[in-house]
Design brief:
Number of strands: 5
Largest sheet: 5 strands, antiparallel
Strand content: 25-35%
Shape: globular
Strand order of the largest sheet: 1-5-4-3-2
Helix content: 25-40%
Length: 101
Amino acid sequence: MRSINAYYCSLNIRYDLPDAVWETVGELYERMPGWIGYVQGIPHWFGQEEDGIRITASVEPSGLCMEARMDEESWQSWIGLFKTEASKVLGFKVAEPEDER
């Protein structure tokens, strides 16, 4: 059985990008595996706060923050896909600060 852990990452998708960029990000959200929609304005995948498995996103001054609760293999696969697809549609490399080193 895979252990469930908490994960957090901050991506270089800045809060102050134009609305058109954020519309594109919203469209990407909906194409990602496990999309269940917005819950009280917060994007959710797979489940909600009370569920064992979930991913949420929030826009912070540091960038787009993703929080997850799931097994590591599933998280690495999902966030890797998100970074790849976001990089394609946004036209710049979407990454975490540690990816840039």
